[in-house]
From TrEMBL, chain A:
It comes from the Bacteria. GO terms for cellular component: plasma membrane. InterPro entries: BPD_transp_1_N (IPR045621), MetI-like (IPR000515), MetI-like_sf (IPR035906). Residues 109-318 form the ABC transmembrane type-1 domain. The keyword Cytoplasm does not apply. One of its GO terms (biological process) is transmembrane transport. Coiled coil: none annotated. Keywords: Cell membrane, Membrane, Transmembrane, Transmembrane helix, Transport. It is found in: Cell membrane. It is a multi-pass membrane protein. This is Peptide/nickel transport system permease protein.
UniProtKB/TrEMBL annotation, chain B:
Pfam families: SBP_bac_5. This is Peptide/nickel transport system substrate-binding protein. Keywords: Signal. GO terms for molecular function: peptide transmembrane transporter activity. GO terms for cellular component: ATP-binding cassette (ABC) transporter complex; periplasmic space.
Length: 328, 580
C-alpha cells in the first residue's frame, strides 16, 4: 500500500511537472504579448519595454521558470508593481485583477468546490441508484422510466436546463433566491439555497450517464457466475445485490466518477456562467480572454492537480471496493 | 483617450464611451432622442461650482442601491482608474479638481469639484493654470483636503507601478510621453513633479512648457483625486481607496462585491454634483449581462433597487423593448462612442475612391443588422454630436441607404480591390458582411481578412499594417474637439506602432490648422473644431463615419435617479436613490 502510494505520488509529481513546463511554454507560444494586457492604455512601445524588463520577461526561459517554481515552494519578491513580497505558494501577480493570483484562486476555488462536491454526491446517488433499480427491474415500467430519464438528461445541455430552472424557480415562482455564493460557514442555508439549482442542473445531466453506465454494469455482473453461486448458496437477494454484485459493478463507475469530479473541480465553466457564479471555470476562461497569463498558469496547474489526485483516489478506492484488486 | 473595437457580449454594442447626449428615464418608450446636442460649457460663475447639488425630484434618503456587473472593476485606486465601470464608480468615493454637472438632458457644465472654479488661465496662454481649493472639503477621516494632498495624488500617478490610469496631466507636466523617466516618484516622494507646485494650502499651480488649454477637462479625470501620503498603500490602494467623496469603502470582497457606506465627513455644501441618498451602494460582480438584466426585470427583493451596469444584451432586446410595463424601467440614450470605417490613406491614396466609399455605405442597413436603434444611431461627422462646437453636416449625402450610382460615378469604371481587416468577434463579423455587400454593389472588390479580436487593436496601430480598411471606434475623455481631431488626424504623431491616427492621414495644412485652433482660448475653440471636422471630411475623407453606440440599460422598479453620463456613456450614480 505504502509502496503503491509512493509510486503513484511520484508519477503524479512527474505529470504535474510536465503540465507546468507545458503551460509555462504556452506563455510564449501564444500570439499575444503578456505585457500589453498589463498596460492596456497609454502604453507606448518604450514604456512597454520597461515593463517587460521589470517583470523579468527578458530573462532566459529557464530562469523565469525556476523563479516561478521557487515562488510556489518558498515564495518570492515580485517587486512593488506586483504587491511586493509574495508568500508561498506564490502563483504570481495578475495585472488584470490586480491581485496575487493565489488570492484569486483562494476566492474562486471554494465556489467551485461548493458547486461540484454536493452536485457529485447528488449525481452519484441519483445515477447509480437509478441504474441499479433499472437493472434489478429490467423490462418493467420502472426500467423504462429510468432509461427515459437518463436519455433526456444525456440529450440536454446545461445552459438550457439551467435557464429553465432559473426561469421557473427564481424569476417566475420566486421560490429560490438568485444564485449566488455564500461561504458555507457564514450561512449554511444561504449557501445551499444559492447553489441548489446548480447542483440540480449538474446532477440531472451527469446522473444520466451514471444511470446508464451502472445499469449496464449491473446487468453484466448479475449474469456472472459468482452471483449465481451466491444465490444458489441461499443468500438473500438484498445481500447478493448489495454486497456482492454492486461492489463488482461499481468499479467502472468509480473510474468515470474520479475523472469527472477531478475535471469538474478544475472548473465548471458552463454551470458557473449559466448561474452567474465566479468559480475556477469562469476565472480560467476570463483569464484566457484577457490574456491574464499568470492566472491561466495557476488554473491549469490546479486543474491538473485535481485530475491527478482524483486518479490516485480512484486507485485507492478500487482496492477498498473490489477485493480482487491489490495495490502494488 | 480610448479607442475600442465596437464590440460587446452577445452582439450588442455594450462598450460605449465618452461624450454624448444623455437621457434620464422618462418612461416615454424606446425611442432614441436623436436631436439632443451637447450644450457643454466651462462654468465662468463660481456659484456654479458651489454645493449643494439641486435636489432630485422625489428622491429620499435611505435604502441600498445595487449595481450588478459581470466583471469586476479593474481599478478602484483613482490614479489608476480609466475603465468605464471605474469612472462611473469613482465619483462615489473620490473627488477631483473639476467635474461635470450633467443635467441628464444634454446640458453639461464643467465646474470646480475640489476647486472653487474650473481653473484660472493665469496668463491667458494656457501654459500656467491655478486652482483654488474649496474650504470645508475633507477626507473620510475628517482631515481637511488641501492642495498638498491633491498634488500628492497627481505625483503618485507618475509611479510606474501604478499603471492603468489616464496620463494627460503627467505627460503635459513632463512634456514627454516618457513622463516616468523625467521624474521618479519613488525617489522623490516628498517633492512634486516638474511644473506642479502648491504655493499655499489653498493653491495648486500647473506650469507647462506648451499651451494646455484642455487642462480644466483633463483634471476632471480621477488622476486629480487627493490622497494623504500616509494613506498611500501603493498597488494595494486598489483594494481600499481612501475616500474624499460622499461614500467610503465599507467592505471590498475583490471580484465579488464592493460595499460603500456613507462618508459622514463629506459636506454637500461643497459639492455641486453629488448626492448621498442611499444608505449604501453595493456593486455585485459575476452575473452575465443576460442574468443581470433578467434579475432586474424580475424585480424581486433587493433587485428592485438594482440596475444592470451591462446593457440589455441582444438576446433580451426584443423582450424588453416590447414589454410596455418595462418601458418605465429602461434607459435608452445615444452615447459619444463613434464608430467609423477607417481608410488606410497610405494604401488608398485616391481621394475619389475614398469619397466613393463614403457614398456606398448603407448606414440604415448596417444599423438594422446590428440590432437597430437600441444599438446604434447613424453618424456622418468625425466628432459625435455631443462634442462642444459640433457642426451637423453630411459631406457625402447618400441618404439612409447609400448612393450606389454616385459611388460608381466617382470610381469611373474602376473596380478597386480593397482588403477589409476585421476582428473575429460577432459584431465586427456582422459589420463586415454588411460593409462588403454595400461596397461590392458599388463596384468595389472587397476581401475580408479576420484578425484575432485581442490582437486587432495592436495590429491596426502599426503603421505598416496590411489592410486598406478596418472598423474603428473612438471615445474621447471629454467633449472637446481637441480630444478627438488632433489625436486621430494629426499626421505628425504617426510612428511605427501604437498609433491613434489609424487612417495614417497626414496633411500639412490640416496640421497647421489644428495648431492654430489649439492656441485659441478654450471657449473659442469649439466652433473651430466643428469647421475643421467638415473640412477634413470634404477635402480628404480619411474615414467613413458610421454610427454612435446607443446605451440601453434596465433597472428595478425602485431604482431612481440614474441617467446615462454625457461624458462617458454609462449609467451615472450621482443622483441615484431608492424609491420608497
Amino acid at each position: 500500500m505504502v509502496r503503491f502510494l509512493v509510486k503513484r505520488l511520484f508519477s503524479a509529481t512527474l505529470t504535474l511537472f510536465a503540465v507546468s513546463v507545458l503551460t509555462f511554454l504556452m506563455f510564449f507560444a501564444l500570439p499575444r504579448d503578456p505585457v500589453s494586457g498589463m498596460c492596456p492604455k497609454n502604453c507606448n512601445p518604450e514604456r512597454l519595454e520597461r515593463v517587460r524588463q521589470e517583470l523579468g520577461l527578458r530573462d532566459p526561459l529557464i530562469t523565469q521558470y525556476a523563479g516561478y517554481m521557487k515562488g510556489i515552494v518558498t515564495g518570492r519578491d515580485l517587486g512593488s508593481a506586483q504587491g511586493g513580497r509574495c508568500d508561498a505558494p506564490c502563483l504570481g501577480w495578475s495585472y488584470v485583477s490586480n491581485e496575487a493570483v493565489f488570492d484569486t484562486i483562494a476566492r474562486v476555488l471554494p465556489v467551485t468546490l461548493s458547486i461540484v462536491i454536493p452536485a457529485a454526491v447528488l449525481w452519484l446517488l441519483l445515477g447509480v441508484g437509478l441504474g441499479m433499480v433499472s437493472a434489478l427491474r429490467r423490462g418493467t415500467w420502472l426500467d423504462r422510466v429510468a432509461i427515459g430519464f437518463s436519455l433526456t438528461g444525456a440529450s440536454l445541455q446545461l445552459y438550457f436546463v439551467g435557464a429553465v430552472l432559473l426561469l421557473v424557480f427564481v424569476y417566475s415562482l420566486r421560490l429560490l433566491p438568485v444564485p449566488s455564493y455564500t461561504p458555507l460557514l457564514d450561512d449554511p442555508v444561504r449557501w445551499a439555497s444559492g447553489l441548489v439549482l446548480a447542483w440540480v442542473a449538474l446532477a440531472f445531466l451527469f446522473s444520466a450517464i451514471y444511470a446508464r453506465l451502472s445499469r449496464a454494469q449491473m446487468l453484466e455482473t448479475l449474469s456472472e457466475d459468482f452471483v449465481r453461486t451466491a444465490r444458489a448458496k441461499g443468500l438473500a437477494k438484498p445481500r447478493v445485490y448489495g454486497r456482492h454484485a454492486l461492489r463488482a459493478a461499481i468499479t467502472p463507475v468509480v473510474t468515470v466518477a474520479g475523472l469527472d469530479v477531478g475535471a469538474a473541480l478544475g472548473g465548471t465553466v458552463i454551470t458557473e456562467t449559466t448561474f452567474g457564479l465566479n468559480g475556477m471555470g469562469r476565472t480560467a476562461v476570463d483569464a484566457v480572454r484577457a490574456g491574464d497569463l499568470p492566472t491561466i498558469m495557476a488554473t491549469v496547474l490546479i486543474a491538473a492537480v485535481f485530475v491527478v489526485l482524483a486518479n490516485v483516489l480512484v486507485d485507492l478506492l478500487y482496492a477498498a471496493i473490489d477485493p480482487r484488486v491489490r495495490l502494488r | 483617450m480610448r479607442r475600442r473595437a465596437a464590440a460587446a457580449a452577445g452582439g450588442a454594442i455594450a462598450l460605449v464611451a465618452a461624450l454624448g447626449a444623455c437621457s434620464e428615464n422618462t418612461g416615454e418608450g424606446t425611442t432614441v432622442d436623436t436631436d439632443r446636442k451637447q450644450t457643454g460649457v466651462i462654468a465662468t460663475d463660481p456659484k456654479d461650482s458651489q454645493g449643494p447639488a439641486a435636489e432630485v425630484a422625489g428622491a429620499q434618503k435611505g435604502g441600498t442601491f445595487t449595481i450588478i456587473r459581470e466583471t469586476p472593476i479593474s481599478h478602484l485606486d483613482p490614479q489608476r482608474t480609466y475603465s468605464f465601470a471605474g469612472l462611473m464608480a469613482s465619483p462615489l468615493f473620490a473627488r477631483y479638481l473639476t467635474t461635470w454637472k450633467d443635467d441628464g438632458k444634454g446640458g453639461l457644465v464643467l465646474v470646480g469639484d475640489l476647486a472653487e472654479t474650473p481653473g484660472t488661465n493665469v496668463n491667458n496662454d494656457c501654459k500656467v493654470w491655478e486652482f483654488k481649493v474649496k474650504d470645508g472639503v475633507k477626507f473620510e477621516d475628517g482631515t481637511p483636503i488641501t492642495s498638498k494632498e491633491i498634488a500628492y495624488g497627481i505625483a503618485r500617478s507618475f509611479d510606474p507601478d501604478l499603471t492603468g490610469g489616464p496620463t494627460y496631466v503627467q505627460e503635459w507636466l513632463a512634456d514627454t510621453a516618457q513622463y516616468d523617466t523625467r521624474w521618479d516618484f519613488k525617489a522623490n516622494k516628498t517633492s512634486l513633479p516638474p511644473g506642479l507646485s502648491t504655493p499655499d494650502p489653498k493653491t495648486l499651480r500647473f506650469e507647462f512648457a506648451k499651451p494646455r488649454c484642455d487642462l480644466p477637462f483633463a483634471v476632471s479625470l480621477p488622476t486629480t483625486a487627493p490622497l494623504k501620503p500616509e494613506q498611500d498603500t501603493g498597488v494595494n490602494l486598489d483594494a481600499r481607496p481612501f475616500s474624499s467623496g460622499p461614500y467610503k469603502v465599507a467592505k471590498n470582497q475583490v471580484g465579488v462585491q464592493l460595499t460603500l457606506d456613507r462618508n459622514p465627513h463629506w459636506d454637500p455644501k461643497t459639492d455641486p454634483v453629488r448626492h448621498q441618498y442611499p444608505d449604501q451602494f453595493v456593486w455585485t460582480f459575476g452575473p452575465t449581462a443576460d442574468a443581470a438584466v433578467n434579475r432586474v426585470i424580475a424585480d424581486n427583493g433587493a433587485d428592485q433597487s438594482a440596475i444592470s451596469f451591462n446593457f440589455v444584451p441582444a438576446s433580451l432586446v426584443a423582450r424588453v423593448a416590447q414589454d410596455a410595463a418595462l418601458k418605465q424601467r429602461t434607459i435608452l440614450s445615444p452615447t459619444p462612442s463613434a464608430n467609423q470605417l477607417v481608410i488606410n490613406t497610405q494604401r488608398v491614396k485616391d481621394l475619389k475612391v475614398r469619397q466613393a466609399l463614403n457614398y456606398a455605405i448603407d448606414r440604415d442597413g448596417l444599423i438594422k443588422a446590428l440590432g437597430g436603434q437600441t444599438v446604434a444611431q447613424p453618424l456622418t461627422t468625425l466628432m459625435p454630436p455631443a462634442t462642444i462646437g459640433y457642426k451637423a453636416y453630411d459631406a457625402y449625402p447618400a441618404g439612409a441607404n447609400g448612393n450606389v450610382d454616385k459611388a460608381k460615378e466617382l470610381l469611373g469604371g474602376q473596380t478597386p480591390e480593397l482588403v477589409l481587416g476585421v476582428a473575429d468577434n460577432t459584431t465586427e463579423q456582422q459589420m463586415a458582411t454588411q460593409l462588403k455587400g454595400n461596397l461590392e454593389r458599388a463596384g468595389f472588390k472587397i476581401t475580408v481578412r479576420n484578425i484575432p479580436d485581442d490582437a486587432k487593436l495592436d495590429e491596426i496601430k502599426k503603421k505598416d499594417n496590411p489592410w486598406d480598411l478596418y472598423i474603428g471606434n473612438w471615445a474621447a475623455d471629454w467633449p472637446s474637439g481637441a480630444s478627438i481631431l488632433p489625436v486621430l488626424y494629426d499626421g505628425r504623431s504617426i510612428k511605427a506602432e501604437g498609433n491613434s491616427n489609424q487612417s495614417y492621414f497626414n496633411d500639412a495644412a490640416i496640421n497647421a490648422e489644428m495648431d492654430r485652433i489649439l492656441a485659441l482660448p478654450p471657449a473659442q475653440q469649439g466652433p473651430e473644431w466643428g469647421k475643421l471636422d467638415e473640412r477634413i471630411m470634404k477635402e480628404h475623407a480619411p474615414v467613413v463615419p458610421l454610427f454612435v453606440d446607443v446605451a440601453y440599460a434596465a433597472h428595478g422598479s425602485k431604482a431612481g435617479g440614474v441617467f446615462i453620463s454625457s461624458v462617458f456613456g454609462y449609467p451615472s450614480f450621482v443622483n441615484a436613490h431608492v424609491k420608497p
